[in-house]
Design a protein that fits this description.
The structure holds two protein chains of two kinds. Chain A has two domains: 124 residues, 2-Layer Sandwich (Fusion Protein Consisting Of Minor Coat Protein, Glycine Rich Linker, Tola, And A His Tag, Chain: A, Domain 2), CATH 3.30.1150; 200 residues, no CATH class. Helix content of chain A is 59%, strand content 7%. Chain A contains 20 helices and four strands. In chain A, α4 runs antiparallel to α5, α10 packs across α12 and α16 packs across α18. The termini of chain A are far apart. Chain B has one domain. Chain B is built from eight helices and no strands. Chain B is an all-alpha fold. The chains are: A alpha+beta, B mainly alpha. At the A-B interface, α1, α15 and β3 of A face α1 and α3 of B.
C-alpha cells in the first residue's frame, strides 16, 4: 500500500519553512524599522559644554582658557583687562592693568606685585598728552600680547565668566568715559579692532582705567618717588569703589576663576576624556546633521532638563551615568516614556535612571526650534550626576 | 557622556531577528527542542495525510463492496474473485467468513455443528485487525497534541533562563539585550503550538472516523453472520 503521508508532510513543511524564510509570494517584505538618529545631548560640566563647541573654529582656544590656579587666574584677569583695554587704549591699560593687580592682591593677599610702578610713568605721560602716548605705546601693545596672548584670551573668557563686572563700569566710568572717548578717538583705528571686545569687558576696563588715571593724577602731583604709594592708593581706591558699587570686580573675577578652575579640574580629572566628548558631536550613523542645532539651542534644552533634575544622593559619588533616549513631539512635549539605553549595574543606577526619567517628564514641553524638528525629534541624553553638583 | 559606550549600546541590539538567526543563536537545548518539535510536526502531518487517504480508500472500498454484495450476485463467484488477492476492510471480512464456511464443508463430513461460532470468531478477529489498522498511529497524534506544548514551554523556559543569565553577565537591563533571547525562547513555544494544534484537531477527527468505519464493519459482519446462520440452519434441517 502506498503511504503518501511522509513525503507529503515533508514537502508541506519544506514549503512552509521556505515561505517563512523567504517571505510569502506576493507578500511585501517586512520593512526594517527606520533607524532614526538620536540627537546626542549631554548634561556635562560647564567646561565640557564649551568643549563641545570645539567642532567650531571659535572653540579652539578652549584648552588654553583653563586657568591652572587661582593666582594665575587673577593675573590673567588683569591681563585680560590689559588686553581688552589695550585694544581701545593700548597704553593706559597696560599700566592700569598692573596697578589693578595690587587691587586684587590687596583683596587677595598678594602684595608681591607692586611692579606696576615703572609703567605708571607712562600713564602719567599719557594724561598730559593722551593722544600721543597711545600711539607711542601702540607698539607696546604687541609686546605684551606676545607675552601673554593666551592669558589675554583666558582672561577674556574668565571675564565673560564673571558677571559682576558689567555693573561696575557704568557708575564710575561716566566721567571717565569722556576721557576715554577722547583717547578712543585718537585710537579709533584700534578701537575699531576692539569692537569685538564685549561691552562688559570694556566697562570693566574703564573702571580699571579710572583707578589708573587717578593714580596717574596723583603721581603727577606728587613726586615720582611717591609713585608706589600712589599706585597703592589708587589701587585701593579703585578696589573700594568697585567693591562699594557691587561685589568687587576683583573678588568676582577671582571667585569665578576659582569656580572655573574647580570645574575644569574636576572635569579634566574625570575619566570621560575630551577626545571622547568631541567625538560625541557626531552621530553614530553619520546621518544626523548635528551642526544644524546651534549650541545655544542645545544648551537651552540641557538647561531646561537640568532645572528639574535631582539626581539621587550617592549617584554622583558612584561615578555612574545613564543614557536616556526619548522622542519629542513637534510641540516640544515628550512623546512616550524616556527609555534608558543603558542602565549601569550600580545599585544607584536604577534610581538615577528613574530620576532622569522624572526630570524629562517634568520639564516638558521643551522649547525647541520647530524648523529643526527632524534633528531633535529623537534625543539621546546622557545624565552624569557629577555635572549637577 | 562617553560616546563609545553609547555607540556600543546602540550597536549591540541587532535588529536582525529572522527565524533562522533566532534558531542559530539559540542554546543547544532550545535548539534540540525546536528540532524535536519540528520533526514531531512532520511526523504528525505524515500520519494525518496517511490516515485521511486510508479512510477515503476504505470508505470507497466499503461502498463498492456493499454495492456488489447486495446486488444479488452469487456469493461463490464473489468469493472466487476476491479470494486470490489481499483484501482490507469489508472484502477481507467476507473472504474470512467464506473461507471458514468452505473449509467446514470440505471433506466427507461437514462440521456444521459450531460453524456459526467459528464464523463469528473469524469475523471478530478480522474486524479487530481492520480497526487496529484504522486506529494505528492515532495515539501518536494524541501524544504530540498533548505533550508538544509542554516541550515547547520547556524550550521557552530554558531560553529565558539563558537570556537572564546573559543579562546577569552583561549587567545591562536594557530591553535590547533581553529581547533577542526572549524572542528565540518564545519561538520554541510557537513551534510547539504549531505542532500540537493540528495534532489535536486531527486526532479528534480521525479517531471518530476510525470509530465509524469500525462500526460499519461490525454492522456488515452482523448482517453477513445472519445470512450464514440462516444457511447453516437450513442445511442442518435438510
Amino acid at each position: 500500500m502506498i503511504r503518501p503521508g511522509l513525503p507529503t508532510s515533508v514537502g508541506l513543511h519544506a514549503v512552509l519553512m521556505a515561505a517563512i524564510l523567504f517571505g510569502w509570494p506576493g507578500a511585501t517584505p517586512q520593512e526594517d524599522a527606520t533607524v532614526v538618529d538620536a540627537m546626542p545631548v549631554e548634561l556635562v560640566p560647564v567646561g565640557a559644554v564649551s568643549q563641545i563647541r570645539l567642532g567650531q573654529k571659535t572653540a579652539k582656544p578652549k584648552d588654553e582658557i583653563v586657568p591652572k590656579d587661582v593666582k594665575q587666574a587673577a593675573k590673567e584677569n588683569q591681563g585680560n583687562r590689559a588686553g581688552t583695554d589695550a585694544r581701545e587704549e593700548p597704553p593706559p591699560p597696560m599700566p592700569e592693568a598692573k596697578p589693578a593687580q595690587p587691587q586684587k592682591t590687596a583683596e587677595l593677599p598678594k602684595p608681591p606685585e607692586p611692579k606696576p610702578e615703572p609703567p605708571k610713568p607712562e600713564p602719567a605721560k599719557a594724561e598730559p598728552a593722551k593722544a600721543p602716548p597711545p600711539k607711542a605705546e601702540i607698539p607696546k601693545i604687541p609686546e605684551p600680547k606676545p607675552d601673554q596672548p593666551k592669558e589675554a584670551e583666558k582672561a577674556k573668557d574668565v571675564g565673560e565668566g564673571a558677571p559682576p563686572k558689567p555693573k561696575d563700569p557704568p557708575k564710575d566710568t561716566a566721567a571717565l568715559d569722556k576721557l576715554l572717548e577722547e583717547q578712543k578717538k585718537a585710537d579709533e583705528k584700534k578701537a575699531a579692532d576692539a569692537k569685538a571686545a564685549a561691552d562688559a569687558k570694556a566697562a570693566a576696563d574703564k573702571a580699571a582705567k579710572l583707578a589708573a588715571e587717578k593714580a596717574a593724577h596723583e603721581k603727577a602731583v606728587k613726586a615720582a618717588a611717591d609713585a608706589k604709594a600712589a599706585a597703592d592708593k589708587a589701587a585701593k581706591a579703585a578696589a573700594e569703589k568697585a567693591a562699594a558699587q557691587t561685589a568687587s570686580t576683583g573678588t568676582g573675577k577671582t571667585f569665578s576663576s576659582e569656580i572655573s578652575d574647580v570645574l575644569n579640574k574636576s572635569h579634566t580629572g574625570s575619566s570621560s576624556g575630551r577626545e571622547t566628548k568631541v567625538a560625541s558631536l557626531g552621530s553614530p550613523s553619520g546621518r544626523l546633521d548635528v551642526a544644524r542645532m546651534t549650541q545655544s539651542e542645545t544648551d537651552a534644552l540641557i538647561g531646561q532638563i537640568k532645572k528639574c533634575w535631582n539626581p539621587p544622593i550617592g549617584a554622583a559619588e558612584a561615578n555612574i551615568k545613564v543614557v536616556l533616549r526619548f522622542s519629542l513631539n513637534r510641540d516640544g512635549t515628550l512623546n512616550g516614556t524616556p527609555e534608558p539605553v543603558s542602565v549601569p549595574s550600580h545599585p544607584a543606577g536604577v534610581g538615577l535612571a528613574r530620576s532622569a526619567q522624572r526630570a524629562l517628564m517634568q520639564c516638558g514641553p521643551y522649547r525647541m526650534p520647530p524648523d529643526k524638528f527632524q534633528v531633535w525629534q529623537l534625543v539621546e541624553a546622557t545624565f552624569d550626576p557629577k555635572d549637577v553638583f | 557622556m562617553n560616546p563609545e559606550v553609547a555607540q556600543a549600546a546602540l550597536a549591540a541590539p541587532h535588529a536582525d531577528v529572522t527565524l533562522l538567526t533566532m534558531f542559530w543563536s539559540a542554546h543547544i537545548v532550545v535548539k534540540l527542542v525546536m528540532l524535536g518539535l519540528f520533526s514531531a510536526s512532520v511526523w504528525c502531518w505524515a500520519i494525518i495525510v496517511d490516515k485521511i487517504f486510508l479512510y477515503m480508500r476504505a470508505r470507497r472500498q466499503m461502498d463498492n463492496f456493499e454495492q456488489v454484495f447486495w446486488s444479488g450476485q452469487s456469493l461463490e463467484d464473489l468469493y472466487r474473485t476476491l479470494s486470490n488477492r489481499t483484501n482490507h476492510g469489508m472484502p477481507a471480512l467476507f473472504v474470512a467468513a467464506m473461507r471458514e464456511w468452505k473449509r467446514s464443508h470440505e471433506g466427507g463430513r461437514p462440521a456444521i455443528g459450531s460453524l456459526q461460532q467459528r464464523i463469528d470468531k473469524v469475523m471478530d478477529v478480522t474486524i479487530g485487525r481492520e480497526v487496529e489498522r484504522f486506529q494505528s498511529n492515532l495515539l501518536v497524534l494524541a501524544t504530540i497534541g498533548s505533550s508538544s506544548p509542554f516541550i515547547g514551554l520547556f524550550g521557552t523556559v530554558w531560553g529565558i533562563m539563558t537570556a537572564f543569565q546573559g543579562i546577569a553577565a552583561s549587567k545591562n537591563t536594557s530591553l535590547a539585550v533581553v529581547a533577542p533571547g526572549i524572542a528565540e525562547a518564545l519561538f520554541a513555544t510557537a513551534i510547539g503550538l504549531v505542532a500540537a494544534i493540528p495534532a489535536v484537531i486531527a486526532y479528534n477527527k480521525l479517531s471518530s472516523d476510525a470509530g465509524s468505519l469500525g462500526a460499519r464493519l461490525e454492522t456488515f459482519a452482523d448482517e453477513f453472520s445472519a445470512i450464514l446462520s440462516r444457511q447453516i440452519d437450513e442445511r442442518q434441517a435438510a
